[in-house]
Amino acid sequence: YRDLHTFELQAPTRVIEWARGSRICVAGYGQSGRNEILQLITPPALQAKETQGLCPERDFKVECGGFSKRAVYSLKYVPDTSLLVTSGPPDSSLQVWQVSTEDSDVIKSVSTIATENATGQLWAKIATISARAPWVLHGSTLDSVQITEVELRKNVYTAGSQDSEELAGLAFLNSSTAVLCCTRGQLCVADVRQPRGALQAMPAPAAPCGDRWCLGTTCAAQGSGLGAQPVARLSSGGLLTLTDLRKASEPLASAMARVPFPGSGTEFLCVSWAPALQGCLAVSGFDGTVHVYDTQSWDSSGREAEPLFVHKGHALGGSGDPALVTVHTWHPQKPRTVLSAASDNSLHVWDWVQP
Amino acid sequence: FLAFSLCPGAGQDVGRSCILVSIAGKNVMLDCGMHMGYNDDRRFPDFSYITQNGRLTDFLDCVIISHFHLDHCGALPYFSEMVGYDGPIYMTHPTKAICPILLEDYRKITVDKKGETNFFTSQMIKDCMKKVVAVHLHQTVQVDEELEIKAYYAGHVLGAAMFQIKVGCESVVYTGDYNMTPDRHLGAAWIDKCRPDLLISESTYATTIRDSKRCRERDFLKKVHETVERGGKVLIPVFALGRAQELCILLETFWERMNLKAPIYFSTGLTEKANHYYKLFITWTNQKIRKTFVQRNMFEFKHIKAFDRAFADNPGPMVVFATPGMLHAGQSLQIFRKWAGNEKNMVIMPGYCVQGTVGHKILSGQRKLEMEGRQILEVKMQVEYMSFSAHADAKGIMQLIRQAEPRNVLLVHGEAKKMEFLKQKIEQEFHVSCYMPANGETTTIFTNPSIPVDISLGLLKREAAIGPVPDAKKPKLMHGTLLMKDNSFRLVSPEQALKELGLAEHQLRFTCRVHIQDPRKEHETVLRVYNHLKGVLKDYSVQHLPDGSITVESILIQATAHSEDQGTKVLLVSWTYQDEELGSYLTSLLKKGLPQSTS
């Protein structure tokens, strides 16, 4: 490590979302009915150009907070507004919140975007993009994918699909295209300029039937095509598949992540591309570790890949049940800085050294 | 009724603490701190707020000091000797021992080094301390007949305490500065479920999520080690007491583990006494230290020696702890000047530095400092900052509230705008009211005092026998007469009250006339009424007396003919005040008329 900071939150979080000005948002996912959404200012130590060992402030500051009765499973800021959107069981509706740090430090609940309930307790996956209007892409199943304009609560797009496949994740690729990933691994690309556009589907990679998948993408720059950055999919068995959406029939590359107990964790699977390191991605959710891989050396054989770096901090926690990493995210500017949170309330900020 | 006033000090001003509480007619001052940032009168609280006229000694029942940090006791000699207060001042034994040392040190620097005149003297400090009454932990101290106080362990620094102030059944707990997690040499704060009406808690770190102590310590040791390895010198300016001891233990343990040879020095005078006090008050330290004290005194350091001024010129690596902490004067500043020019050296600032001090300047990045005599000092040594101060964060505050179970919470030392979230959090979690007053603001909190009343045994027995069996969990309604005489309240039976007061009992009797259309004879009407009532009032005792009247329980009903109209009978219904309810009911029942067929 070049640097490592460990923190303890009052409750575990499964979301870490970045906001303007070096802020992150975390939220509780407990079933007790009293969860907190916290917007934290990152310590100046993280914001500095060079990493210093001892810095004026090494602590996170709670800038504002809100209370949510629901468990928060997904949280996204709506760019260019002071709103954020959350979702969580028992249904696929979205809760809209107002973050205003002017006169008060309370994040207030503003409205709810209701949706037709899918069967079962499926919660909505959310994606947002900086666009002309405050759009939120959300849905819990393929046929319930829609875009809502948040301030007016108006529906702008609905996926033209009859398929009730459960969604694992969705993301905007650019302001006109979105990619959807089902829990069984299929990918779909949607042109969101057409209000009821059909989806272009791609098959799931070959993998054991019971595996569940999740999605990792990078939001490409305005105007760039689909192929700017491949889309990564991670299975609960540890299989990582990279797909170029222009040639989606065949995976670009794939590899097996080295996981101790494949198939154990499906709740918190997380894969994400490093914004400032070409071809690097991080994987977590199987145990108390976060793995960083360099995908540039991968081929399509699917054999086991050696991680560049493994963060073991969460696994080395105190006594009790071993912690499970719930989420991780890359620092938008500092190339090797990653934030990760685990089920034991820990929040780590680490800066790894390229071996 | 508990009025609480935030007198010129704390409340959104991290600088000095001074709180005035009015509880059940008693006035108590909590802490008497000074602001380290100001060099003029603003550093002391404005005591004219307290009472417009009249002497402070008459107005205040006592003053309580929570711990020896200057922002909690720095203005005490000024307050007691220059403004004028002769009443009792309470603090714990370690605080009483250490306060005068810090006050004298501060006085020396302010007067001797800075040449100020309007400041308290050494004699004033001594006179002030004569008014101090030292207290033990968990000892209930009777200030006067009604006011009592009790100290609880607060962690934070040696001798720091949280105080409970109680008058009758109203109480306030003031936390001072406290810490809910134990560290290397002190334990964590603790309080019992005393359920005060108000808990006043500091909230300096309420909005902070601190990184783990392990990380901070690791980084600190890494920096010290690196500097020493390359032959540099490390200067750590500290306040004599407090975190210095924590860091000493940390370094000592590290030196032992890594088998390091570079010397560590602890500057003399003030700090020697400090270590002496820690040994003296060993019971105030944490469990681990007390347990190992027999085998190895934690404060008997193997690798840390007393410093001599000459050592600063010695070649080679070393680590020196020197006072004062903000590099504003004294030995630490002297050493700093000697070492500043060498980039191999390092200075680690251990905490908050007040504006204007050299410490603050170098932390802000200044590398060329103007010293006295217009000399420019170029700072080439590495400047680092770390904060090991022990305060409670949001989680700690919640823990303390959970322990004490107050009815109201008041937060001081924070930034009001940014505490709305914490306020709501506390209100929602504990269902109590949370206040965050500003400097100078008065907060009034209403309490529901319970007033104890003695009940006479005879009355208790009598009332307990009526109605359902007494149940410990259910309140029971009893009737009696409340006698308030002098300062005592007694509940007695009405008869006894009358006897004691020499009063005669008056009986109130109500009589009501109900007209009934009935041409028959009176005694037949009576029979009709009797049968009717007998049928309706099955649970009551209805009797037909030989003299022609009817009784329902103790209510009397008689029938007479109307003077002018033979067809109308007049029923006289008569009852005492105690039977009001039944009487009214009977009357309205009879007014409805009698059923036609009666037998």
UniProtKB/TrEMBL annotation, chain A:
One of its GO terms (cellular component) is spindle pole. Signal peptide: none annotated. GO terms for biological process: cytoplasmic microtubule organization. This is WDR73 protein. It comes from Tachuris rubrigastra.
Automatic annotation (TrEMBL), chain B:
One of its GO terms (biological process) is snRNA processing. It comes from the Eukaryota. GO terms for cellular component: cytoplasm; nucleus. GO terms for molecular function: hydrolase activity; metal ion binding; RNA endonuclease activity. Keywords: Cytoplasm, Hydrolase, Metal-binding, Nucleus, Zinc. Its cofactor is Zn(2+). Residues 244-362 form the Beta-Casp domain. Gene3D superfamilies: 3.40.50.10890, Ribonuclease Z/Hydroxyacylglutathione hydrolase-like. It is found in: Cytoplasm; Nucleus. InterPro entries: Beta_Casp, INTS11-like_MBL-fold, IntS11_C, MBL, Metallo-B-lactamas, RibonucZ/Hydroxyglut_hydro, RMMBL. SUPFAM superfamilies: Metallo-hydrolase/oxidoreductase. Residues 15-232 form the Metallo-beta-lactamase domain. Belongs to the metallo-beta-lactamase superfamily. RNA-metabolizing metallo-beta-lactamase-like family. INTS11 subfamily. This is Integrator complex subunit 11.
